[in-house]
């Protein structure tokens, strides 16, 4: 394992004495930030998850009440299930859409300036506010929104559909809207590096377009798909704001469970849920990383 | 030129729909922010006016959004500078194998995939237990870096994977010290990519919400202020604010892209005079 890891991180460079010191000096700012604002907070959460809480304060302790309550509650299992459901459905949609868009950009656009321009069109929303992008769905999906008005005008429905906004539908729609980009970029990145001679060889050997897609392009794009999957799955599993906003507080996922506890100042309980969520996410990532070497794919 | 296959038109239509899906809602609230004073959150438009934009400049209507904007701007610039400097340094470090580099890499990846609310909660708890006050420029700044630095680092990996080492060797052969090589050879070559890192640093900070939520303290950043508004403001003023911040983001992105483009052109013009001699 450890050999595989260092191999993955520095594939060609050989170890030399003196590397350690300069390496750590150069990596010091990153390391310090990660120590203070990532590892220490995680450690703190783990510690606090064993603490006790009164209605107004928390006190140091070592008890398993928070975990016992968490695993003893039927709500926990329902909410974790809902979280996996959101992650899976969002993953399926973002993959299908992201793959198609990336395929179009990589293989059907012949001029490079246009390719770059269209790629930027896809990525620019990533650099704007997620909250504003969520708010933008309200006039579209609301009871008197554009979608309902249009459907009524076309005579497809008589009554406005109630499930467009503040439902699982709107939550997943927002997820797909926000995160498809995270599929498009890595998939596109691996697709443009596919050797075009391979496609020609497939065609020369009599493969149809579809066969080339399934047997040549798809397998070669797998690393990009994996990286996109890691992004989408972790973003959706860790989310607490999209679910709250797009469901009008009517749906729950694990992130909301944590943020509700925080709102009630029940930090130990929030911490215990956070520990379980973190472990879940890390296990999922651990499985996905088996299939891809991130450093090599950049 | 080869004739376009039928699938091209199908995919082009799909792509157009995707772009519409990406931008449609933003354009919709852009239009609705010009609602007349009696207008509501959805169509129809009841007149056209700048009423809701005017509201933004009146403190009592929307709270302290300009203060929040200033804080987000300053924080964005701080995070941007730190992200560029720290990412380049770490990028240089990762070019050689050093003891523990594998662990550090996986910690950085963890920073990227960890549910944001854990950062918020953990940093908040630490500051609380140490008796420190959370503030956007301290705890908020550090928390945002856990989000921007991994992106910066990944970009640096991509940059150095494509970096031609013979330039460095040439510099060394001519007697340049390690620092001179970095300062006069490596940094100028990777400069355009640093614009990309800066763009990520600034925009990700400027729009960051989840990791800043419990770490910004009593003075909100703009996304926190906007989120607060969603629960108690039910007029198009929120669309006006959304339109303005989105336009601001577009302007920032435009500036960065323009800078990258200008730099690439200058390089193309001055880079090499091969073939232009006698």
Automatic annotation (TrEMBL), chain A:
Keyword Transmembrane included in the entry's annotation: yes
Keywords for this protein: Cell membrane, Membrane, Transmembrane, Transmembrane helix, Transport
Keyword Transport set for record: yes
InterPro entries on file: MetI-like, MetI-like_sf
Domain (ABC transmembrane type-1): residue spans on this chain: 80-288
Top-level taxon: Bacteria
Alphabetical list of SUPFAM superfamilies matching this protein: MetI-like (SSF161098)
Chief place of localization: membrane
Transmembrane stretches, start-end: 32-53, 86-105, 117-138, 163-188, 267-292
A Pfam entry, by short name: BPD_transp_1
Its membrane topology: Multi-pass membrane protein
GO process annotations (BP): transmembrane transport
GO cellular component, as recorded: plasma membrane
Family: Belongs to the binding-protein-dependent transport system permease family. CysTW subfamily.
Name of the protein this chain belongs to: ABC transporter permease
Source organism: Seohaeicola zhoushanensis
Automatic annotation (TrEMBL), chain B:
Coiled-coil region list: none
Signal peptide: none
Top-level lineage group: Bacteria
GO terms (BP aspect): transmembrane transport
Membrane topology qualifier: Multi-pass membrane protein
Cellular component terms (Gene Ontology): plasma membrane
Presence of keyword Cell membrane: yes
UniProt xrefs under SUPFAM superfamilies: MetI-like (SSF161098)
Keyword Transmembrane: yes
Chain ranges passing through the membrane: 7-34, 73-94, 103-127, 147-164, 185-206, 237-262
Matches recorded under InterPro entries: Bact_Polyamine_Transport, MetI-like, MetI-like_sf
Compartments in which it is found: Cell membrane
Record keywords: Cell membrane, Membrane, Transmembrane, Transmembrane helix, Transport
All residue ranges annotated as the ABC transmembrane type-1 domain in the record: 69-256
Record-stated family: Belongs to the binding-protein-dependent transport system permease family. CysTW subfamily.
The protein's name: ABC transporter permease
Annotated organism of origin: Seohaeicola zhoushanensis
